[in-house]
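Renewal narrative, Specific Aim 1. Our central claim is that a sequence can be written position by position from structural information alone. The example that follows is taken directly from our test logs and has not been curated for this report. It begins with the structure tokens describing the chain, in the order in which they were read.
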């Protein structure tokens, strides 16, 4: 008869891990959400993961990348738990040392980075309950083994097949029950932390003043109104989110301040109350992520309300040798922005509002930077608390340390939204196939968009009316007499400086992916 005990001990270890994570999430919910082991582990791991892997995860999971991380952690933890559980078959003491050691690892990580002892409670509670589950299960699964301490003797410790059916049923029942409770507690803990952060966002809601300068009304011609085409203004809920925070920092607006220091004549600190009293300006600016793939959706357009960074810097009086501003967020992220981009006449803002509302927590509440013409990683610091006037030669920002460029000017780009990939389309009543999409070259502006089907001639697309050179534009192009069958549509934009979109396929690192976006579709 096969020995089932290795399986039983492995299962007991897996269940112990699920109970551990679940209990800890549950207790963390009652104390402080920041001390859940999954959160601590996630936040410890993110900065260590190679950039290429993070970017791959973002491209696979999109904005679910953090959920994917949590699930991966649970799975890896369960596998480890299984291995340790199996070790306990012959080396009981070692298995407990490993279970307890790994279980309190998050506490060690947290306390070493300055957490309080109260933060240790969730993990410790998890360890106690996880070990209890492990002991209970192996006792049930193999009662005699437990009595025969560290026994290697197969004869004395019969496997579960030698036991009554009721014990076996009880064992597997307990395995299933505890796993279900553990997983449910993990899920509940994750959703509780989401609820908690939404609630926190509501409590600290800011009342924004009326803009001193409003953005002009959106002209009718700015929207081409084609089914499937991205709207010219991106609704806040659909706006892409990219940052390194597992849970976005919760910053209290009333205690927030921004400090401008470094190579300046006059150090300046501004509080939220002071900021809201300044004449705030509204500007429409499209934001893009450098890791956006060709044709990707890490780009959006919003109306931002804020105070010009140029005017804040004027108060501080940067020294002549300075050439960069290192902005730091509440969570330690940094971005390096060329000083001249923050002092020229463009609409670089210390923003507090997005689309008529205070910034949502995900997008930097209570204040962030928005800089037209640069990728977000070198300019758009959310939860910003510090501007250090410095030099590129002296300081390096978060992503630059990880292999990305120092300066990040946006490259002219475009994508096809219509037709959607792989769809079947029929010509409209005029016998035409309609193609449409978006094009952007922030702060330079889009001059022209060219579109072609297969290897045909390039057609010049019709463009939506430009809001400002800082925002993207929609384009639309129709084709007559497209033969039935499968075709490829390709788009290429040209900016107002005459730069053609780079056709060569290049990966995102160090300074944005290049290549022309193509879509395949079938004409019926
Ligand atoms: N604090 C902080 N700010 C940040 C980041 C970050 O990781 N942390 N990511 C930057 C990057 S890479 C981009 S593309 C933009 C995205 O802004 P959004 O999430 O509001 O779309 O935020 C920037 N600001
Ligand atoms: Mo980004």
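The sequence written for that structure reads:
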């Amino acid at each position: 008869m096969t020995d089932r005990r290795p399986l039983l001990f492995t299962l007991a270890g897996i269940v112990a891990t699920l109970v551990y994570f679940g209990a800890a999430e549950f207790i963390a919910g009652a104390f402080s959400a920041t001390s859940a082991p999954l959160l601590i582990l996630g936040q410890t791991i993110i900065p260590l993961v190679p950039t290429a892997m993070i970017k791959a995860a973002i491209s696979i999971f999109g904005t679910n990348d953090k959920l994917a991380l949590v699930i991966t952690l649970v799975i890896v933890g369960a596998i480890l738990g299984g291995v340790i559980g199996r070790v306990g078959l012959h080396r009981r003491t070692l298995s407990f040392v490993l279970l307890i050691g790994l279980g309190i690892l998050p506490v060690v990580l947290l306390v070493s980075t300055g957490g309080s002892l109260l933060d240790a409670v969730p993990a410790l509670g998890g360890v106690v309950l996880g070990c209890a589950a492990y002991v209970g299960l192996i006792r049930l699964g193999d009662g005699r083994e437990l009595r025969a301490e560290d026994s290697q003797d197969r004869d004395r410790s019969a496997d579960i097949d030698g036991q009554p059916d009721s014990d076996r049923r009880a064992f597997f029942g307990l395995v299933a029950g505890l796993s279900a409770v553990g997983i449910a507690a993990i899920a509940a803990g994750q959703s509780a932390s989401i609820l908690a952060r939404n609630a926190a966002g509501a409590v600290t809601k800011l009342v924004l003043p009326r803009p001193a300068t409003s953005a002009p009304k959106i002209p009718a011609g700015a929207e081409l109104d084609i089914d499937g085409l991205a709207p010219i203004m991106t609704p806040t809920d659909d706006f892409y989110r990219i940052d390194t925070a597992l849970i976005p920092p919760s910053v209290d607006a009333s205690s927030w301040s921004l400090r401008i220091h470094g190579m300046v004549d006059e150090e300046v600190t501004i509080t939220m109350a002071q900021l809201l009293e300044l004449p705030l300006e509204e500007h429409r600016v499209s934001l893009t992520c450098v890791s956006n793939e060709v044709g990707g959706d890490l780009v959006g357009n919003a109306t931002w309300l804020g105070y010009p960074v140029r005017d804040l810097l004027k108060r501080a009086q940067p020294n002549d040798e300075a050439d960069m501003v290192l902005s730091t967020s509440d969570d330690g992220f940094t971005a390096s922005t060329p000083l001249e981009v923050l002092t020229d006449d463009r609409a670089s803002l210390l923003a507090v509002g997005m689309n008529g509302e205070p910034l949502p927590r995900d997008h930097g509440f209570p204040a962030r930077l928005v800089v037209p013409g640069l990728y977000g990683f070198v300019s758009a610091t959310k939860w910003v608390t510090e501007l250090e006037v410095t030099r590129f030669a002296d300081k390096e920002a978060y992503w630059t340390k990880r292999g990305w460029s120092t300066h990040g000017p946006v490259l002219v780009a475009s994508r096809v939204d219509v037709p959607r990939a792989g769809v079947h389309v029929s010509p409209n009543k005029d016998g035409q196939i309609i193609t449409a999409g978006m094009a952007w070259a922030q702060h330079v502006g889009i001059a022209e968009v060219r579109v072609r089907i297969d290897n045909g001639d390039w057609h010049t697309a019709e463009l939506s009316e430009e809001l400002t050179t800082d925002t993207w534009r929609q384009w639309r192009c129709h084709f007559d007499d497209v033969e039935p069958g499968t075709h490829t549509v390709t788009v290429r934009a040209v900016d107002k400086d005459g730069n053609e979109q780079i056709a060569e396929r290049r990966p995102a690192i160090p300074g944005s992916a290049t290549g022309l976006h193509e879509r395949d579709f079938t004409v019926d």
